[in-house]
What we know:
It holds the Pfam family Fe-ADH. Residues 189-353 form the Fe-containing alcohol dehydrogenase-like C-terminal domain. This is NADH-dependent alcohol dehydrogenase. Keywords: Oxidoreductase. With 385 residues, this protein is an alpha/beta fold. The chain folds into 2 domains: 11-177, Rossmann fold (3-Layer(aba) Sandwich), CATH 3.40.50; 183-383, Up-down Bundle (Dehydroquinate synthase-like, alpha domain), CATH 1.20.1090.10. The chain is 49% helix and 11% strand. The protein has 15 helices and 8 strands. The protein has helices at 22-25, 40-43, 46-52, 71-84, 95-108, 115-119, 183-201, 209-231, 236-249, 263-275, 279-293, 295-310, 316-333, 350-361, 374-383, and strands at residues 11-14, 31-35, 58-62, 88-94, 131-137, 148-152, 157-161, 170-173. The strands form 2 sheets. It has a 6-stranded parallel β-sheet. The protein has a two-stranded antiparallel ribbon with strand order 6-7. A hairpin with a 4-residue loop joins β6 (148-152) and β7. The longest helix is centred in the middle third of the chain and has 23 residues, at 209-231. The radius of gyration is 20 Å and the shape is globular. The relative contact order is 0.11.
Amino acid sequence: MLNFELYNPTKLVFGKGQINKLSELVPQGAKILLAYGGGSIFKNGIHQQVIDNLKGFEIVEFGGIEPNPHFETLMKAVEIIKTENINFILAVGGGSVIDGVKFISAAVNFDGNPIDILQKHILIKENAMPFGTILTLPATGSEMNSGYVVTIEATQEKLASGGSALFPQFSICDPTVIESLPKRQLQNGVVDAFTHVMEQYLTYPHDGYLQDRIAEGILQTLIEVGPKVVENPSDYALASNFMWSCTMALNGLIAKGVPTDWATHMIGHELTALYGIDHARTLAIIGPNLYRVLFETKKEKLAQYGKRIFNLEGTVDEIANEAINKTVAFFHTMGIDTKLSQYTENYNKTADFIVNRFDERGWKAMGERQNITLEKLKAIVEMSY
């Protein structure tokens, strides 16, 4: 097992009605920036619950954070915080809102141009503004980790960063909030969490036996509850297991002591930046084809995955190949298309564009073995058409 450090200071408050604890969790006397997205929290009653549970606190509201939060929008919030002398941020929304708030938290006290945090991948380890979250859409795990992804609209870049100072102080996770979510968002959430696990699990055999078993447990749970929760989100057993699986998929635990990949995400981010495709759907487009192009170095782990998750039998190559097919079939069961051409007609030059962009950034050796060259990158994207 690889050496590791585990640090996760987020207080997770999980279950029905836990939003009632909000006033105990926010620092007393805080002046709060209440950040949210497109306004669904008004329709499902969560906004009113927040206001009711923050009586006595001074609140400034900031809405309109996009599904892929834009740097340009978030910088408006940074200016409001400075102008209004705000000292705490409350993110109410899904992963995009929470990611956006992490960047806001990082940017408020940053000494320099905040765009450098993204473009130079600067990790924020101190001097961030404290924040908490109320999760309304399970998917990204952002409620219990310190990473985030932000889109720079002007340059069509979707870039990731983070840092140990960017964990939420607390996150309230009430599974009943998913009852009002559209099917598309639930589908995305399941596939997003599933691929998060795969990025940390589907590498090569190693000595992290427990990490593998936990990862496999999350995958099996998502396969079991995913299609059902889309059809019946008011079932609390389904909703709670779905929400907890999404959190566990990316709270850092299963990544400790093991190799990880993340190339599927790096490529998928480009598809979102270029075409506005939902994040989870870009992962479903790229992931299976990355496994195919990297088959020789991933087939041992693919075979383990196929045996343990899908009970497949045969040779290593046979099981590994069928495991990829089973993964694609699961994505289809979730209502997710897995070809780029199903989302845009302008896909022909996509591979060349992404290769050139990665070349400019110096991203020429990706994946757990650093063996995803620009040539393999091109093959993965073209296979995804």
